[in-house]
Amino acid sequence: MEYRSFGRTDMTVSALGFGCWEMGGTYGDIHEDQAIAAVHRAIDLGINCFDTAPAYGTGESERLLARALGARRQEVLVVTKCGVGYAEREKGRDSRRDTIMMSIEQSLTNLQTDYVDVLLIHWPDVNTPFEETMHTLDTIVQQGKARYVGVSNFSLNQIKACEATRRIDVVQYGLNLFDRRMEREIFPYCQDQGIGVMIYGPLAFGLLAGAFQEDTEFGDNDWRADGNRRPELFLRLFAQENFHRNIRVVEELKLIAAKHQKQIPQLALRWVLQHPAVSVALVGSRSVQEVEDNMGALAWALSYRDREEIEAVFTKHDIETSPEIWIDQP
């Protein structure tokens, strides 16, 4: 396993982390016994970062992670979030003090622990002063219920507004071969300020896992069945007209991966891990085999020529990987 400094915290994080969105049950079928076995195998292989959120299945992801970790809780870093899932609020977001305080207590109960290593605001709540939100996060740290705090999916201006009250230790954003928007402003700022960067979606939400065909259909309990869902966040990767094109891109990327005797997800993960801003790339795994396969992203490197070949594929198919669309547009 490769290990990296987690920003300016005192934590060392594995380059590959375990994303627990799938454990919430909105990412297609998942078998609990297999998921638990995958968690244990990940720890055995050196993965020490597990990322969850109460929004993943209304707390089910946190509860399943707790069952999976069991007595091994102290071997890992647990990251969770707060601030979303409130239907009465605009965009379902609520980062007021009382709401955050209630949320962390519920998360600690779900996770069967008395602290989390990192607590993040899941999405910005522009109707609550960031000063109030950041003071609340600082209170939680002072109470020992979180070691470090940060934000997810905030714009650069929002990050700076938050840091007028308290330093942000860790952030979380999407990055993959199809979506590189955060390279423009967010990542350079994080590198300059020594902020730890967690990456979600490095396999483009399964697209870069290489298992889909142009006629793949997703189940009703899989958010990808609606290819137009949250277009600003997912760039309509699974919309029919884009999905077919994207599958052809993946097929060509497989040929580049094969030159290194690698599979397409290993190439996609390696590309993300070589970004100098990245502390940890989160990958969801449903089975022991998937965890073990992901390890193939370690201990090798993409050359400059490899990266040129990859870029040529995206150029050929006229794919804009960094459009001027922010992830939080209405």
Q: Can you offer a commentary on this structure?
A:
The protein contains 11 helices and 10 strands. By secondary structure, the protein is an alpha/beta fold. The strands form 2 sheets. Strands 3-4-5-6-7-8-9-10 form an 8-stranded parallel barrel, surrounded by 4 helices. β5, α3 and β6 form a beta-alpha-beta unit. α3 (97-111) packs across α4. It starts with a strand and ends in a 14-residue tail after the last helix. 45% of the residues are buried.
What is this entry, summarized?
With 330 residues, the chain is an alpha/beta fold. The chain is 36% helix and 14% strand.
N-C termini distance? 40 Å
**Low confidence ranges:** none
Separate helix tally: 11
The chain-level mean pLDDT equals 95
The major sheet is characterized as: 8 strands, parallel, barrel
Task: Summarize the topology.
Blueprint: E1 3-5, E2 12-14, E3 16-19, H1 32-44, E4 49-51, H2 60-69, E5 77-82, H3 97-111, E6 116-121, H4 130-142, E7 146-152, H5 156-163, E8 170-174, H6 186-193, E9 196-200, H7 231-234, H8 240-258, H9 264-273, E10 280-283, H10 288-294, H11 304-316
Defining traits:
alpha/beta, 330 residues, 10 strands, single chain, 11 helices, 8-stranded parallel β-barrel, globular
